[in-house]
Amino acid sequence: MPDLLLELFSEEIPARMQRKAAEDLKKLVTDALVERGLVYEGAKAYVTPRRLALQVVGLPARQPDVREEKKGPRVGAPEAAVQGFLKSAGLASLDEAKIVSDPKKGEFYVAVIERPGRNTPEVIAEIMPDVIRNFPWPKSMRWGKASAESGSLRWVRPLHSILCTFGAETEMPDVVRFQVGGIVSSDVTFGHRFMAPGLILVRRYADYVASLEQAKVVLDLDRRKDIILNEARNLAFAQGLELVEDEALLEEVAGLVEWPVVLMGSFDEAFLSVPPEVIRATIRANQKCFVLRDAKTGKLANRFILVANVEAKDGGAAIVAGNGRVVRARLSDAKFFWETDKRIKLEERLPKLDSIVFHEKLGTQGERVARLVALARELAPIVGADPAKAERAARLAKADLVSEMVGEFPELQGLMGRYYAAEQGEDPAVAAAIEEHYKPQGPSDRVPDAPVSIAVALADKLDTLVGFWSIDEKPTGSKDPYALRRAALGIIRLVLENGVRLRLLQFLDDLVVVGKLTSTYELPAGTPKVSTLQDLLAFFADRLKVYLRDKGARHDLIDAVFALEGQDDLVLIVRRVEALGRFLDTEDGRNLLAGYKRAANILRIEEKKDGRTYDGAPDLTLIAKAGQIEEKGLAVALDAARRDASAAVAREDFEGAMRALAALRPAVDAFFDKVTVNAEDAALRENRLKLLNAIREATREVADFSRIEG
């Protein structure tokens, strides 16, 4: 079966856009082909700095013929309906339609539409201009004389040529002819900009890849990454060093070159007095180079790896020298920042925070620091931290934001604060907390485990959430400009992974006031405090579901536990969920859930019918008078189970609470087997409905079983 080869050749595509662009090209073209009845065997997209390419294999030579029956109006329908039918079906008159008889609906018109399939190149030529014109680049541009005209072609960078061929491997493929923005498709591409810029005639994919290789172009982005990584490791190994690997930088560098040439440069050892993270950030940000470390000591070496896009005649000496000059200049700046910053104590930097706005409705960074100090002091005894150290760390946590180094490299915030604090003789726990209070910043980031760090990290994230909730700035849909979901997940991980017993609602309630600023936060006038805090707790519940679902827990069990009043201790919530999950995996658990649902369904129906609820304890005298052993047995079992489950929950023994509920199973089964709930005697019926309600209330000692699926 024939294959399609497409290449869009342009000026340099930004590295950050390349992988997504290749995926978009593949999806847009293959979706359009399938929509037109052209199914294929496989497709793969490729990208280099100067080209997007796509290979689609196993396409049919032509579309399948289509025969479609379009149902029309009844015979004798109004003229307007008939004319609308003829127009939509493409018929000249009703003579071209057939009449079909239906025993129930009578006679109606049917148009038989037959469309012969077109040759696949025709379909591709129809698809491609639309794909190219509407390509979803994050940013695009117009160029040349045509740019003055409205509707002219836009592309990420000027588009120079389009290669498009179609044909079987054993035959000479045809050029698929179309044009976009004055660019006519052909079977021609070009090699490396400097080493082989000449024209290349292309037949099919295998020739295309081989010709590009000869013209110093590696088409596959992942292959370029492998070349860079392996050659960098080998160069480092030859010098007794190790590559400090960086996946994001590797992806970017592979998107900057078509023919990767890996070289090693060096810089003055004197620069190694600068913190290694600063050296790495400087070399990475300014020169897109990798750093190396000593294989034995793990310390940074005065070497770096760069990736060129050409094979230079001098073996790359001039390229290395040029990069070395820039690296040395940048490291000189970094060393200056480091030496300058060290002279100013973090404490002395604090007044500058008053001039930096954190958020127009939440004040300055200075005001935020005051809140963090208060919060950290409150949290310290809860997490087992020294209150004085927690307060000190919170006071200095944001001071490095006004340092020269963080101004140049914002990604080093916190880390530089730790270095400056250590240089200035701060307690090691305080210095560590200054760096770690930003953590965890993602699901794979490390969670601090030192008490002072936990206190300040919790304070930072709680301040963010309570602050933005107090001004009604919450995440919506996929938009979360203030990273509030990440902050909530950070709190969840800090609490759970360190076993912190924090009553969230109670703690938040102490922070927020309504109408006057007598505490840390102020809600706008007229904002209900309780609903705001409950809404924030519900947000935590949603994030906890995500966290636990990723660990294999069921979302309905989380709902069932959160539905109980006062559930704001995340550690206990997780323990309840885990115990409930284990219980429901047993036969007793499954049977009790089935019995609960049966009782709840009967209650729901009868309460709706009677327009009332059946709260309150059942009358034991009436049960004894009825004389049914199973009914009395259930009443006794419920009383014991609820008492035992409540006692177990009070001592945080959730497994024990589940065992107490499991003891209900025989009594519930016997009751439903032998007892008629809807007795003719109204008093007896009411009492038995109260007994069913008692089942519902007993299970609420551990969870709201109505939220459990299955």
From TrEMBL:
| Keywords on record | Aminoacyl-tRNA synthetase, ATP-binding, Cytoplasm, Ligase, Nucleotide-binding, Protein biosynthesis
Do you know which SUPFAM superfamilies this protein is assigned to? HD-domain/PDEase-like (SSF109604)
DALR anticodon binding domain residues are 594-697
Q: Which Pfam families match?
A: DALR_1, tRNA_synt_2f
Which BP terms does GO give this entry?
Answer: arginyl-tRNA aminoacylation; glycyl-tRNA aminoacylation
Instruction: Give the subcellular location.
Output: Cytoplasm
Catalytic reaction equation(s): tRNA(Gly) + glycine + ATP = glycyl-tRNA(Gly) + AMP + diphosphate
For whether the record's keyword set contains Thylakoid, the answer is: no
Cite the EC number: 6.1.1.14
Q: What GO annotations for molecular function exist for this entry?
A: arginine-tRNA ligase activity; ATP binding; glycine-tRNA ligase activity
Coiled coil stretches, renumbered: none
Record carries keyword ATP-binding: yes
Top-level taxon of origin:
Bacteria
Q: Name one GO cellular component term.
A: cytosol
Which PROSITE patterns has this protein been placed in?
A: AA_TRNA_LIGASE_II_GLYAB
The entry assigns this protein to a family as follows: Belongs to the class-II aminoacyl-tRNA synthetase family.
NCBIfam families for this protein:
glyS (TIGR00211)
- Describe its assembly: Tetramer of two alpha and two beta subunits.
Q: What is this protein called?
A: Glycine--tRNA ligase beta subunit
- Originating gene: glyS
